[in-house]
Design a protein that fits this description.
Blueprint lengths: L1 H11 L10 H12 L9 E7 L2 E7 L8 E5 L9 H15 L2 E5 L11 H15 L7 E6 L1 H16 L6 E5 L11 H4 L9 H12 L22 E6 L5 H13 L4 E6 L14 H17 L4 H6 L2
Helix pairs in contact: 2-3, 3-9, 4-5
C-alpha cells in the first residue's frame, strides 16, 4: 500500500507543485486532488467567517463540550484551502473529539509574510473572544501550516494572550532558508516535495524578510515558554531535518516535546488516513496527546470522585 501511495502522489501531486506552474493552477489542482481523499464518517462542515477570515467549521460525529482545534493547512503558503484539507482536519477532530476551525489564511505571492500569521492570530483571538477556553483548544497544522502553527504560538506568547493547550505539527516546515540536511539527502526520496518548489514558495512568502527571519522561519525564534508540542514526520521526506532540529531546540529550552518519525512514509502522510496504517496511527496518537493536554470541562470536574 505504501508503495502504491508513493507512486500515486508522484503522479498526481508532484508534477503540479513546480515553480513553472502558475499559482492559480497549482491551487486548483491540489484542491481537486483533495476530493479523492477519504474522510471520517458523519462529520459536518460549514463555511463561516472568523475575524474577517474565510473558514470552515468542522464538527465530528462525537464532540466533547468545549473542545476545539484551530487547524492551519499546508501548501507552502502558496496553495491549500478547505477543499484540500477539510478531510485531514476532520480526522484530527474525530480523534480529539473536538470541533475544528480551518481558516483560509491569505496566500502568497499575493500576500507575503506576515499576512498569514496575522490572519491566524486574528482567528485565535476571535475564538477566545467567543468564549473558547484556550486550555481546551489546540493549534495544529501540516507542512507550512505546521510552521505557521508554531509561529502563531510564538505570536500568542508575545501578545500576552492565554496559550493553547498544545501544538500538533505534522511534517512542519519551519526553516524557509532550506538549510536542513535532508533537503539535499532526501530530494529523490520525497514523493511530494521538490527543493526547487520549496525555494520558490519561500521566496514568494517571505517578501522582503530574510529566509532565516524568525517571523517566517520559526525554527530560529525564541522557543521558550511554548505549550507542549507533538511532532510527526516521515522518514522519507525532505523536511525531516526541520522536525528533528525543532525537537532538539525545544528540548534545549526545557519544553515538552514528542517527536515520532514514521518509517517508510513521506510528507504529510496523514492525508492518507483511512487507507494507510501509519496515517491512522499518527491521527490516533495525536488524539491521545490532545486528550492528555486538555483541561477537564467543569462538568467533568464535578462528576469526578
Amino acid at each position: 500500500m505504501k508503495r502504491f501511495l508513493f507512486w500515486l502522489v508522484r503522479l498526481l501531486v508532484r508534477p503540479a507543485m513546480s515553480p513553472g506552474v502558475p499559482a492559480w493552477l497549482q491551487r486548483r489542482w491540489i484542491d481537486t486532488v483533495g476530493l479523492i481523499l477519504l474522510g471520517p464518517r458523519r462529520y459536518k462542515a460549514q463555511r463561516q467567517a472568523i475575524a474577517g477570515v474565510a473558514a470552515t467549521r468542522i464538527v465530528p460525529a462525537k464532540v466533547d463540550p468545549g473542545r476545539g482545534v484551530l487547524y492551519l493547512h499546508g501548501g507552502g503558503y502558496v496553495v491549500g484551502s478547505a477543499h484540500s484539507h477539510t478531510k485531514l482536519a476532520a480526522w484530527l477532530g474525530q480523534a480529539a473529539k473536538a470541533q475544528v476551525w480551518l481558516p483560509e489564511y491569505r496566500l502568497a505571492p499575493e500576500h507575503a509574510s506576515p499576512v498569514a500569521l496575522k490572519d491566524a492570530l486574528a482567528v485565535y483571538g476571535a475564538l477566545l473572544a467567543a468564549a473558547q477556553d484556550p486550555s481546551r483548544l489546540v493549534i495544529a497544522g501540516d507542512s507550512a501550516g505546521g510552521g505557521l502553527a508554531l509561529a502563531t504560538a510564538i505570536a500568542i506568547r508575545q501578545a500576552g494572550l492565554p496559550p493553547p493547550a498544545a501544538l500538533i505539527l505534522l511534517s512542519p516546515w519551519t526553516d524557509l532558508s532550506l538549510s536542513g540536511e535532508t533537503i539535499r539527502t532526501h530530494a529523490a526520496r520525497d514523493a511530494m516535495l521538490k527543493p526547487a518548489w520549496l525555494r520558490w514558495c519561500a521566496d514568494a512568502y517571505r517578501g522582503t524578510a530574510r529566509a532565516d527571519d524568525s517571523g517566517c522561519s520559526p525554527l530560529f525564534a525564541d522557543l521558550r515558554g511554548l505549550p507542549p508540542v507533538l511532532i510527526h514526520v516521515g522518514s522519507e521526506e525532505i523536511l525531516l531535518s526541520d522536525a528533528e532540529r525543532l525537537a532538539r531546540r525545544l528540548n534545549a529550552t526545557g519544553g515538552t516535546v514528542e517527536l515520532h518519525c514514521y518509517d517508510g512514509v513521506g510528507h504529510v502522510f496523514q492525508l492518507h488516513a483511512g487507507v494507510l496504517h501509519e496515517a491512522d496511527d499518527s491521527i490516533r496518537t495525536a488524539g491521545q496527546f490532545i486528550e492528555r493536554r486538555f483541561t477537564p470541562a467543569p462538568r467533568e470536574l464535578e462528576d469526578s470522585p
